[in-house]
Amino acid sequence: MKPTHYFNRLRGGIAAAGIAAAMLLAPLVQAAPFTFTFSTLPGGGVLTGNAGQLVGWGYSLTNTDTANWFVPTELSASSIALGTMDGAYFDFPVLAPGATQSAAFDAALLAGLYGIEIDAAAALGQSESGLFTLAGEWWSGDPLAGGIFLQAGEAVVTPFTVQVGATAVPLPGTAALFAIGMLGLLAARRRAQLR
């Protein structure tokens, strides 16, 4: 065999191997985006609360991948001096392809994303900002039902702001209002009797 024929055959074999490899890897390349969206509730992450009050953020999380499952594994928040942050509310939902999970903040049900107890000495109008960071893993199927781990996901960051609002002025109790109303009726009745 002539050397040029040998190299032409070798080149053809390499090209065929490259095409075969591309065909085998095509499903992986198509599924490579591995993306999810993550946002806070209220939208924009701006939260207002009073000094000494426990308030918090909910979340909306969407697996935008059409073939793979997303499992959140790490959630963190910037530390801030305005209050004590608490990440015990997040439930780390397992998301099927295209699925969305949302949860409003509810301190009694331990639901939502993060809570913050605003410092009792916080001044009216004071505010502070930070970032929530969420990372996770990608699986070929439900990780609780035989799915195969594919890779760790890129972390997604979303901003938040906490601001101290006005302290609400307590409204008079209904019993006090009722008593004032009754005294007014009695006074009007006595006036009518004296005439």
UniProtKB/TrEMBL annotation:
Domain (Ice-binding protein C-terminal): residue spans on this chain: 168-191
Ranges annotated as spanning the membrane: 169-188
Domain of life: Bacteria
Family annotation (InterPro entries): Ice-binding_C
Keywords: Membrane, Signal, Transmembrane, Transmembrane helix
Signal peptide positions (record): 1-31
Pfam families, per the entry: PEP-CTERM
Protein name: Ice-binding protein C-terminal domain-containing protein
Species per Swiss-Prot/TrEMBL record: Pseudoduganella chitinolytica
